[in-house]
Amino acid sequence: MVERSRALLAGVLRPPFQPALLGALDFEPRLVAEEPQQDEVRVGLPEHHGFEVELDVGLSRQPGVVAQYAEAEATFRKGLDQQFKPPTSFYYGLGLVKTATDSLKAASLWLIRATEADPRKGAYHKALGDVYAQQQVTELAIDEYSRALELEPNSAEVHYAMGKLYFKDRKWEETVKAWK
To answer: Which end of the chain has a smaller Cβ tally under 10 Å, C or N?
Structure first.
């Protein structure tokens, strides 16, 4: 897999962490960090996903951490502009950036695009469910969480998020079922 990807990429493959300002578009080698820093994006090319790029944008809302939302959005948009068929993870990444900046309508549009492009990713459905939950559209959020659970039945994050919605609506039996 790595040998095939080396033949297709112009440059040397980067290690798992790279600066967010350049995203997956720059292949200059650098040292691997233990954890992504606030200005880094985790990128990997797992064999079971082909050449799909998995992104963990690391945009944090932790106190004292300055997230680079504008730079992250610029990176994803640059990636979209430069590729004939961009990876669905770019749509997902833009959805996460828009969610983090409370642009929920834009976030839902990007995440819908990601789920339509690759409906087999539970994380995409979970993120879209999170946006619907923030918009207080419980029925759509539950639908997306249900799709995510079909794809990733052991996801504790999805079970917890779904249970929170049921709890908020005072649906106790569904809450207990989701949290078991």
So the answer is: C
DSSP string, 130-141: HHHHHTT-HHHH
Could you tell me the pTM of the whole model?
0.63
80-100, pLDDT tens digit by residue? Answer: 888 777 888 889 999 999 999
Whole-number Å distance between alpha carbons of 117 and 120: 9
Give per-residue pLDDT as tens, 20-70: 444 444 433 334 444 444 444 444 434 333 334 444 445 555 555 556 788
Q: How far apart are CA 156 and CA 96, in angstroms?
A: 19
DSSP letter string, 76-101: HHHHHHH-SS--HHHHHHHHHHHHHT
